[in-house]
Amino acid sequence: MGATGLRERLRRGDVLAGTFLNLGSALAAEACGVAGLDWVLIDLEHGSGSEGDLLAQLHGARAGGVHAVVRVESAERPRAGRALDLGAEGIMVPRIDGVQEARAAVAHLHYAPHGDRGVATYNRACAFGTRPQAIAEAARHTVGIVQIETPAAVAAAGDIAALDGVDALFVGPGDLSHAMGAFGRVDAPEFQQALRTVVAAADAHGKAAGILVPGHEAVPGMLALGFTLIAVGSDSTLMVAGARAAAAAVHAT
Question: Are 228 and 209 in contact (CB under 8 A)?
Answer without folding.
Answer: yes
